[in-house]
Each structure stands twice: as C-alpha cells, then as structure tokens.
C-alpha cells in the first residue's frame, strides 16, 4: 500500500487516488503492547449503535485476550450494562485458561470506570489500563475487533432484510 497520495499516483494500475487516500488509516500507537503470557492483558471496547439485534440489543461489547487472541462478543441493550458483562467475560476467560487476568485495557469510557468495577479490579489484583482520551488508536486491538465484527453483523442484517 503506498504511504502517501503522491506515491499512489506513481503506482501503475492505481485506478482511484482518492479511494486509496480514503482507505489509509493512522498507524497503530507505539503504546500498544502485546502480551506474552496467558491472561496478561485483555482489551475491551463497546461497538455500536446498530439497528436492533436479537432481544433488543444495539451495542456489542468485546473482550480480547491478547496472547491467545480469544475473543468474546456480547450483545448489550445499553452501554451501562458493560461493567457486569465485563466481569462475566473476565471470569469466563479465567475459567477457560486457568489463569487470572492481570491487566484490562479500555478507552476510559464512563461505563469502564465505575466504582463497582474498580473494586472488582482491586479485589482480583487486576490493573486497569486506560488509553488517552480521544485517541482510539491507543486501544487499537479492541477497536479492530469491533470494526471487523460490526462489519460482519451489518452484512448479516442487510442479508437478512433482503
């Protein structure tokens, strides 16, 4: 992929320079880290809002265990449900792997910084890693998972409507 529009113009066979430019995204942040041991790091984010899914859900909360790439995606009706769902998903990941989660990375949205969730982290010795505000690329793994899943859900909904 050419790194600039000027480079794209020089590539033979490039049909639409504006399309190439429009598909370019910002490079991932150097703050992103990759875990090397099981349950060292779990990325989480909420995607949506979609048209209503099964059961009235319009958001999708994902949790990605970094070292294995294990993903859970849970449809939720409102963003305020995220803390309870996240607690359940962390417990599920710990049960499946037999290892305690050490860190959780999120974008700092208000549903991830509740007192109840903070207390849960303290009780279980989990470190909450919050990315910088308005810098979605700092939580790039969770955002990528959400983007991919949301594209697939939209496609399935469109196919079902046809």
- CATH homologous superfamily heading of the largest domain: Ribonuclease H-like superfamily/Ribonuclease H
Strand order of the largest sheet: 3-2-1-4-5
H/E element string? HHEEEHEHEH
Query: What kind of sheet is the major sheet?
Result: 5 strands, mixed
Proportion of strand residues: 15-25%
- The best one-word shape is globular
Class based on secondary structure composition and strand pairing: alpha/beta
In total, the number of strands is 5
Mean of pLDDT: 77
- How many discrete domains? 2
User: Tell me, what is the CATH class of the largest domain?
Assistant: Alpha Beta
Describe the 3D structure.
- It is built from five helices and five strands, in the order ααβββαβαβα.
- By secondary structure, it is α/β, with parallel strands linked by helices.
- The protein has two domains: 1-30, no CATH class; 41-161, Ribonuclease H-like superfamily/Ribonuclease H (Nucleotidyltransferase, domain 5, 2-Layer Sandwich), CATH 3.30.420.
- The protein has a five-stranded mixed β-sheet with strand order 3-2-1-4-5.
- It starts with a helix and ends with a helix.
- The mean pLDDT is 77.
Name some characteristics of this structure.
alpha/beta, 5 helices, 19% strand, Nucleotidyltransferase, domain 5, 5-stranded mixed β-sheet, 37% helix
In short:
Helices cover 37% and strands 19% of the residues. It is of the alpha/beta class and 162 residues long.
Q: Which helices and strands appear, and what pairs or packs with what?
A:
Blueprint (H helix, E strand, L loop, with lengths): L4 H6 L6 H7 L17 E8 L10 E7 L4 E7 L5 H16 L5 E4 L8 H9 L3 E4 L9 H22 L1
Parallel strand pairs: 1-4, 4-5
Antiparallel strand pairs: 1-2, 2-3
